[in-house]
Amino acid sequence: MLHKFIPDLYAKSIYAIDLDELQYRGIKGIIVDLDNTLVESKCCEATPLLIDWLNKVKQKNFRVMIVSNNSKARVSKFAMPLNIPFIYGAKKPLPFSFHKALKLLGTHRYETAMVGDQLLTDVFGGNRVGLFTILVLPVSDTEGLLTRFNRQLERLVFHCLKKRGLFGWEEGN
Ligand SMILES: [Mg+2]
Questions:
Q1: Predicted confidence (pLDDT) per residue in 95-153, tens digit
Q2: Separation of alpha carbons 82 and 162, rounded Å
């Protein structure tokens, strides 16, 4: 059970992800979380840095989409100007939105990465479906109540993983 909480890769931010390495691993599709992965949870527009990154991702022929537990209003306002497909109200870690995303991307689970800042929704959910999971550090610490609760649980899981020597940001970049 605990191994489902272990990401395949750790990165300090989306910008630290080695896209060439992903390609080498056969990844063709990238599902990204929105809040605190791409931008702060209170921020509604993409930064120039993020727009550059998304362009780079598309240039490398990755198919990309946003899967977020947040509301339609929040996710569509963010994703539509960027012309990126999205799923809102995803209820991660439940599997159905991940399956829907794979269908929309047209990629198999083993050639799809899930990038997110939360162990309990993004990593756990992605691992359950068999995606290649990448945990990034949260962009900001201004978070809602539910996320704060999840962070507490996350600390517990981190603690368990550390005790078993299974956890390390050292391994990634
Ligand atoms: Mg998030």
A1: 999 999 999 999 999 999 999 999 999 999 999 999 999 999 998 866 666 676 677 77
A2: 38
CATH number for the domain spanning 123: value is: 3.40.50.1000
Distance 39 CA to ligand 1 centre (A): 9
Contact residues for 104 (Cβ-Cβ < 8 A; gap 6+): 65, 85, 87
How many domains in the chain? Answer: 1
Say if CB 104 and CB 82 are below 8 A apart: no
- Going from the Cα of 34 to the center of ligand 1, the distance in angstroms, rounded, reads 6
Q: Which residue range forms the structural domain that includes residue 60?
A: 2-171
pLDDT for res 168: 64
User: In the prediction, which pLDDT does 54 show?
Assistant: 97
173 pLDDT band (50/70/90 cuts)? very low
* Residue 138 CA, ligand 1 centroid: distance in Å: 7
9 membership: H or E segment, kind and range: strand 9-11
